């Protein structure tokens, strides 16, 4: 490529029928100016291209970085989702196991309460029988002791207890209330 300095320094040979030197010099000056202008513009354009390529490279790098970040975020979300599902399954299994334990404990407690209830019923029956026998023994002792008369008529028993004489009537209700009347002589 020819430089502006080469154009300026170019000497042409002189001939008899040649061009006007002054016109050629003026024309060469114009070409030199235009060429210098084009060279500067070319340098500026190359600098702009280099800047744009650098920015493109940065954008491409950023684009790659963004894609990598998005892929990482997606993988992280997948991991979190899987982890959450596993945790939910574990919580559900634990809750089911806890519920089974509570049901088992409740059944055991129910059985224990049934056994205690049956034991109390047996103890009550035994107590009742023993109390009945004791009362019968005491009644037998009282019958055997002198001075206690149990064979009086109901009217005599009532009159001595309530201060009534034999001519006063006794209601059936009062009669029922008096089951065992003991009269001491």
3D architecture notes:
The chain has four helices and two strands, in the order ααβααβ. With 185 residues, the protein is mainly alpha-helical. Strands 1-2 form a two-stranded antiparallel ribbon.
Please list the strands of the largest sheet in the order they lie side by side: 1-2
Number of strands: 2
Quickly give the structural class: mainly alpha
Strand content: under 5%
Helix content: over 70%
Radius of gyration equals 65 Å
Query: How many DSSP H or I helices?
Result: 4
**Poorly predicted ranges:** 166-170, 175-185
- Specify the biggest β-sheet: 2 strands, antiparallel
Provide the residue-averaged pLDDT.
80
Order of helices and strands: HHEHHE
Tertiary shape: rod-shaped
End-to-end distance, in Å?
163 Å
Key terms:
185 residues; mainly alpha; two-stranded antiparallel ribbon; 4 helices
Briefly characterize the structure.
With 185 residues, the protein is mainly α. It has helices at residues 4-9, 21-144, 154-162, 172-177, and strands spanning 148-149, 183-184.
Which helices and strands occur, and which strands form pairs?
Elements: H1 4-9, H2 21-144, E1 148-149, H3 154-162, H4 172-177, E2 183-184
Antiparallel strand pairs: 1-2
